[in-house]
Amino acid sequence: WLALGGAALGAAMLPGQAFATLSTPRPRILTLANLNTGEYLKTEFFDGRRYNKDELSRLNHFFRDYLANKIKTIDPALFDQLYRLQVMLGTNKPVQLILGYRSVDTKNEMRSHSRGMAKQSYHTKGQAMDFHIESVQLANIRKAALKLKAGGVGYYPK
């Protein structure tokens, strides 16, 4: 899930459709800013032939549950989707991460203080993120994410 803005993008992918635009091997680079921790990351997580394990580890740390300081392996398909989304939108502006991985304990604690939070969340599986991209309208991010047909899209314009 990509949560748009929040927007949300999920990593449940259909192999044929999901990788159609990735069929030509080339490096995949993401530039991200974590709005909660102030961290910034630019990473080439895929070199055109294979994933870079060290860079995936850096991304896992970047997407960690910062409240509990817990790290989970994030599904690389989520990074592929995010890369494809940026290509589709024609932007290289940093993706501003609002929420990546959320541990079950943190989610349950937050649910106890808030109404409307989902009981089940792809965030706890390392398969979802909430984000926005500076100077890109949320509605345009949503449209592009839906065109990917690669997972769920949440849209939270307020």
UniProtKB/TrEMBL annotation:
This is Murein endopeptidase K. GO terms for biological process: cell wall organization; proteolysis. Residues 1-20 form the signal peptide. GO terms for molecular function: metal ion binding; metallopeptidase activity. Keywords: Cell wall biogenesis/degradation, Hydrolase, Metal-binding, Metalloprotease, Protease, Signal, Zinc. InterPro entries: MepK, Zn_M74/Hedgehog-like. The keyword Signal applies. Its cofactor is Zn(2+). Belongs to the peptidase M15 family. It comes from the Eukaryota. It holds the Pfam family Peptidase_M15_2. Pathway: Cell wall biogenesis; cell wall polysaccharide biosynthesis.
